[in-house]
Write a structure and sequence with these properties.
This protein is α+β, with helices and mostly antiparallel strands and 287 residues long. It has two domains: 147 residues, NADH Oxidase (3-Layer(aba) Sandwich), CATH 3.40.109; 120 residues, 3-Layer(aba) Sandwich (NADH Oxidase). It is built from nine helices and ten strands. Strands 1, 2, 3, 4 and 5 form a five-stranded antiparallel β-sheet that branches. A five-stranded mixed β-sheet has the order 6-7-8-10-9, with helices on one face. Helix 7 links the parallel strand 6 and strand 7. The longest helix is centred in the last third of the chain and has 19 residues.
């Protein structure tokens, strides 16, 4: 591998929808298969199985009906993740899949998250999933095309991919005021990597509250009104919970590289005040 810093990898990753029409080189395929075989476990301990597939003509059928995600051209391969129903399984899925995507990015590969209904798709068939298995999302993998197509630019603009919420909309003090992350050179950088995390339709549903005087960060989900209902209509998973796992991945990877020790725990203080409608996910307890 290249040994790139996590910040460089995160800043270099983008949703690639146009790939060069070539298969993965053996070295890149073996590299990905070896990384996937490590059985990555998320903060909640859910078992997630991943499979790497060379792209198949039937895959285009599976991608129809996924809105903007249908505009994926010439992927060399797909990574499919399989989970069973359990509490916090989607958060662990998002965490683990993003670890794979960041690894692929470091290896020089392009990628794109594809969320939707894959229960009766070519991916499900090749993965041999059981009746109680779920594929919340797949990732397209390949070599990024040299030039973005007109369709790429339209899709990116429609999804708001280049527009992200500011820090004052995502990170808060325990009194629900704006968190002055610029004055904290350690966790300030970590939170910026969270802000840059990908999310379904770029909704960025994560909210983080830092306890006063402590390196303790509580993660909450603020849902986008109607978004889950719309996705559930086509049989899709709760992608905003997947987004929470992606944010946790960026936070943990960045913290570890910065030498910041801590651990995840599912324990929210009873006296912590936060807006009505926010859903508690997890806490990072920094040491």
């Amino acid at each position: 591998m290249t040994g790139k810093k996590i910040e460089e990898i995160i800043r270099g990753r983008y949703s690639c929808r146009s790939f060069r029409p070539v298969p993965l080189a053996d070295s890149d395929r073996l590299n990905l298969e070896e990384f996937i075989s490590q059985k990555i476990t998320g903060p909640f301990g859910t078992g997630v199985r991943f499979r790497l597939f060379a792209a198949d003509p039937l895959d285009s059928t599976a991608l129809k009906g996924l809105g903007t995600y249908g505009f994926v051209r010439n992927p060399a391969a797909f990574v499919a993740g399989i989970i069973k129903e359990s509490e916090m399984n989607l958060e662990d899925f998002g965490y683990a899949m993003e670890r794979i995507i960041l690894h692929a990015t470091e290896a020089g590969l392009g990628s794109c998250w594809l969320g939707g209904s894959f229960k009766r798709s070519s991916f499900a068939e090749r993965a041999g999933i059981a009746d109680d298995d779920l594929i919340p999302a797949v990732a397209a993998i390949g070599y990024s095309a040299d030039k973005k197509t007109f369709t790429d630019r339209i899709v990116r603009a429609t999804a708001g991919s280049d527009k992200r919420k500011g820090r004052d909309e995502l990170f808060f003090s325990s009194f629900m005021g704006s968190l002055n992350t610029d004055s904290d050179n350690s966790y300030g950088k970590v939170l910026e990597m969270v802000r840059l995390a990908p999310s379904a339709s770029n909704k960025q549903p994560w909210r983080v509250v830092k306890e006063e005087g402590k390196n303790v960060f509580h993660f909450f989900l603020e849902r986008t009104a109607g978004y889950y209902r719309q996705n559930r209509f086509i049989g899709g998973a709760d992608l905003q919970r997947v987004d929470m796992g992606i944010a946790m991945c960026h936070f943990e990877c960045s913290a570890i590289e910065s030498g910041l020790k801590g651990l995840w725990k599912h324990e929210i203080p009873s006296d912590l005040k936060y807006p009505k409608g926010w859903e508690y996910s997890i806490t990072w307890d920094g040491k």
